[in-house]
Amino acid sequence: MASTLGNTLRMEKLDLAIGAGHGMTIPLILLATVAWWIWLRKKAHRESGLPGTFGLPFIGETLTYVAKMKTPLANFVDLKTQKYGPLFKSSLFFRETVFASDLETVKMIVAKEGRSFVSDYPTSFALLLGRFNGLNLQGENWKRLRRYVMSTIMRVDLLKERMADIEDLVVKTLDSWTDDGRTIYVEDETKTIAFNITAFIVLNLRPGKVSHTLQQDYYPLIEGMFSLPINLPWTIYGKAVKARERILKNLEEFLESRPVTDDVFGNYVKLLEEELPPGSPAGLKHEMGLDLITSLLFAGHDTTAATMVFAVKYIGENPNVLAELRKEHEELLSRKKPGERVNWDDCKTLTFSNNIITETLRMCNISTTVFRKSLEDIHVGEYVIPKGYQVLPYFRSVHFNPEIYPDPYTFNPFRYQESGGSKLPFFGFGGGARLCPGMDLARAELCLFLHHLVMKFESWELLGNDVVSFFPFPRLSKRLPIRVKRRKV
Ligand code: HEM
Ligand SMILES: *[C@@H]1O[C@H](CO)[C@@H](O)[C@H](O)[C@H]1NC(C)=O
Ligand SMILES: *[C@@H]1O[C@H](CO)[C@@H](O)[C@H](O)[C@H]1NC(C)=O
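Structure tokens predicted for Cytochrome P450 (489 residues):
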């Protein structure tokens, strides 16, 4: 249906072209080309054999999808999978879409990045994070950006040096969690921790006014990334556009006032000077640099903060997990000299802590899916994923498949210690060539966070019944209010 309407619209454009009164040959050739193209599309649809429906014309099933995403009760993909099986078509955000939720197909899609499939995020991402942000880039521009990120801020030796600073930012916030009966809203606190760390890593920005203003503007921006791009003052998207303008203005001011230019932004612009074809406009390099920074601040902070929130919740609900986690960190301290700091290599040895991070990410669905496009017709069993479809490998279904994760709705970090546990398929950081480049940094931040959480607090009480709202990212409706009990030392 959606495509039929699309075709009608294209036909109207063509009528206008004919009306404009060129000779007859060109319109005829055009008409024939369009008819042929439509015929090919129709054929592809028929032959794909994919179950599922495209829903309403144009808008497709977008509204149902968004409505169902907002409630944890009836997940759109679960309902559809029950009806049609693990591979089905739909139409979302004006695109013909295929959902894949069985392990083999999910693995295949992620592994064939750049060949049969390519990263293809919604236009609203490109509009709000900039067209040169990592997720929307493909080909040479993507490879250059990825190489640059991996060889600069994500270099292990650099991250090792920064552990003490990261730890200071974690400790500063946790030390402010007093146990005089006050309510702590964990979501607010962890957002600030994660933003301060990311701003420090990416911009060398120390907490202060600039950092605070930047941070506040990110939340309306993120909301807008998953909304319909209708730019009016009162729409979610319109507010996001305004937030982006303020972020860029503040970043520009900061970049102009910074004393050294030998940093993530400056060095990237220098690299572009060497690598872009000669004569590329200077404005382009500057724009690409800004897009790198804005997208790193986005990708690095809200994800990590949400993981911290859900870790506090799940550990708080499971005293046996808390006890085991504390044991691991006490043993770590007993191996270290008094006053010696927790470092990168320590975090690598903390198996149980890392299992908690994995299990938290599995349970809270921060990475539900990634956005891909098919570059060719792809045969999957008896079906064909036609070329040009939006393809969504649905990690969430794999993570909650009872045959892969027995008793999937239970938070159980011990499952990874059982035989075969270390081989469980996990897509919390994506996979394939686009595997999250910030994974090690995120794990290190979370390790330090968990360390101080269990060493400073005896326990915490979860106040209020938070409801999960899952759009665009998992959130708790009450921002996870807790009351803490400090440990006596
Ligand atoms: C718990 C925290 C995090 C989670 C759950 C997470 C998740 C993900 C996922 C699933 C992807 C894959 C997207 C795709 O394949 O299309 C990704 C990509 C990315 N992440 Fe993360 N991430 C986290 C933390 C970070 C941090 C701390 C940074 C950097 C400061 C970061 C920077 C990026 C970038 C730049 C990409 C794009 C990579 C590419 O397209 O090649 N992430 N992340
Ligand atoms: C993070 O930054 C904000 C403002 O930018 C500041 O108020 C806060 O104290 C900082 N937090 C930490 C843990 O340094
Ligand atoms: C994650 O997805 C599962 C399965 O759909 C659901 O049961 C669970 O409530 C979700 N968790 C969050 C935090 O949204």
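The CA atoms of residues 355 and 413 lie 5 Å apart.
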